[in-house]
Amino acid sequence: MITRLESTLRRWRRKISRSEWLARMLKLQINERDPDAPALVLIQIDGLGRPQLDRALADGKMPFLKRLIEREHYHLDHMYSGVPATTPAVQAEIFYGVKAAVPAFGFMSTDSQEMLRMYESNAATKVEQQLKSTGHEPLLKRGSCYVSVFRAGADNDEAHFCPASQGWGPSLKQAGPLALLVLLLANIWSLIRTGALVLLELMLSVVDFFRGLTDGQDFIRELMFIPTRIGITILLRELSTVGVKIDIARGLPVIYINFLGYDEQAHRRGPSSKFAHWTLKGIDDAIARIWRAAHRSSRRHYDVWIYSDHGQEDSIPYETLHGRSLADAVSEALSNLPQSPKGYLANGNHGIQLQRIRLFGGQWVQKLFPVGTQQSQRTGESPMALSAMGPLALLYNIRCRDTPHAEIARLIVEKTKAPMVLYEDPNATEMGPDGNAITKVRGWWRQGAFSLPEDGHLVFGDEHPFVDEAVEDLANLCRHPDAGDFVISGWCAGHESISFAIESGSHGGAGPNETHAFALMPGDIHFPSDGKEHWRPKDIRDAALRFLRAQPARKLKSPPAVTVVSSGNAETLSSTVSAPASREGETTKHPTTTKILRVMTYNVHICEGTDGKLSPERIARVIARYSPDVVALQEVDVRRQRTGGIDQAHQISQLLAMDFHFQPAMHLEDERYGDAIMSRFPVRLVKKGILPGPPTKSRLPGFAEPRGALWIEMDFHGVKIQVFNTHLGLSKAERLRQIDALTGKEWMGSDHCQRPRILLGDFNALPGSQEIRRVSEWLDDTQLKLKGHKPKGTFFSRLPKARIDYVFVDPELEVNDIHVPRSELTRQASDHLPLIVDLRVTVPVAGHVGQEQQGD
């Protein structure tokens, strides 16, 4: 009844949903198919490194992300962003699976000799056309994106605030006055809230403006930073958040959003600055709104993944240190060489911050913030060119006759004071990982010449969290066809980080902080199986593709129906019955150790959630998030018409890759309904059968549903554990008869039932009842057994006050921990919450298991 009430409320909420109405008013395409299909919202926090996130969580700047970790079973992981540590490179790897698609945020195309900056439409379009030609599937196909360099398969109408599709796209332009009026009225609170945030940000911007002048910053740049700061940190964030919520209401399969506010402030004031961390509060709130909208969706099963593309290094601008630009310094350093460069073309000395505001689109914005012109002193068709937009500078067209590359690298390091210079050695090759010959990468730094990867640990330092991968990626970056003749790095081990742009925070190189990103993932989304304890962008892509391609359980192939023939109410498999228990007082002669056994009992309510959706895969995700070794399920449908005719027990076990046994308490021709046990460890079915019903005189209509039990023996690291699963009746008299049967000679009281024993299930009885007291004479209630633990209810999942699901164990099993997860997922998936118990089990030491069994 409560489930039906909540389902009704959800349907009405959908009918009056602002996002739903806005989608229809704007005539946006709405997905009315595949309501059970998985869908994904990818949230990127631009520039937020793992160390800065840890600090923000500790300081209370991101309370919602902290809640995801503590209450929603998300796990916070390290991520290596790759080199170059830039947004375009990371997005290309996530969206297309191509590593280091671009050598830097700004670079020269060696084919056209054109300087490209990835916030420009022509540059983003050109690179994406090359990515499409690789044949890799774009990740955002049939989806949408907000504040992205690439469309990644999203249609033009679905790419918003992107270099090649600025503004909110044609939807608003084509909308009539009525639709725009509804848009404003429907979001009146958001408009008021946004207006207040703009005023607050304006005051902070003015304070920051005078602070910048006090620190000696340029007056015009500080003044221009005020509107860009408000536009990026407030307006762009709020508009994109509203757009994502509309797309969730529409049921798009994959949605990507990038929050730029922190990166914007970190570039300007430094990654650890108070102004940068202030923006994280607003980002955290926006993520909370998106997450709630995703979990209320009635059109798809949305998952929300949160990650960053890279971190930032606290940096000092090169011009501040040396009083001149790097281009001038390099030109002077090489001026005395034969055929030395007499002029240069420079790109990007003043950074990206003042160009991001152009993402809003509109002619007035384009005129107010024009793309900077290229500086040049041309002497011929191909002058020396330098692209420097962070801690990496790419040097092109260096044609110094008869001068070795090593000599040029030495001159640059010594005369410009750059920390490190790298280059390809045209006279040396080595074997690559694929067995093909590749050019050797060498370099120069304060200690002289070096080679990669041999000297990688020396140049990068052993403190670098991803030293081996970063060394390999930096070497491959030097081999990139558009990386130029020399790569100048503003960072190396033992040297303060230098940015070749005017900024206090930088990224794009191989530094330990700029390559140290994070991934905040749901509990059932795990590391790739490559042995590394961190993600990289391609791993995010691979996991996302697997998630999106997963078929709903109703589309998976079910096994053929099996007819079980048995005499009486119970089926006993005598060939699998365990040996008798060892004699009392007998002790083992073999060394032992202790291992944790995680057990779960879960009434899955025929996989129908409190939102009215039938979803075996959602039940599987709940189980997967908590990784039990053995799980007892109640109320499982097999081939019943009311749940789509699928075999829920088989499908859930298939999704979890666990072995299972099913006990049908009810048979309706080919339809069955009952309980199941699933395990990661080897199990043997001992017995399954029907328990006694209520006394004849006490039977009432609706109370005569058959009840069953299932007994398996599990081999847990050499220890045989007896596991029982049951679902007792609704009347007291019936439950007492069923408990007497369970504790009798046919079940737990059998001579063949050796200890330890675990009894799990839905008992439909409160802790103080006569039924539970009778069970407690045989076994311990784990929620009372754990010292200092306050017992928790499991029913009803939205307001779990009743404790009717139990795990009982023999006294020799020690309870290590108990969980009753109250996450949004568990509250939706069933009308019961799962009960999870961690038990300490004494097991033989590895190597003695076989000897012990042989002795038995």
TrEMBL record:
Superkingdom of this protein's organism: Bacteria
InterPro entries named among the record's database cross-references: Alkaline_phosphatase_core_sf, Endo/exonu/phosph_ase_sf, Endo/exonuclease/phosphatase, GPI-anchor_lipid_remodeler, Phosphodiest/P_Trfase
Pfam families: Exo_endo_phos, Phosphodiest
Region span, Disordered: 559-592
Domain Endonuclease/exonuclease/phosphatase: residue ranges: 600-832
Biased composition (Polar residues): 564-579
PANTHER family: CALCOFLUOR WHITE HYPERSENSITIVE PROTEIN PRECURSOR, ENDONUCLEASE_EXONUCLEASE_PHOSPHATASE DOMAIN-CONTAINING PROTEIN
Protein name (record): Oxidoreductase
Lineage of producing organism: Bacteria, Pseudomonadati, Pseudomonadota, Gammaproteobacteria, Cellvibrionales
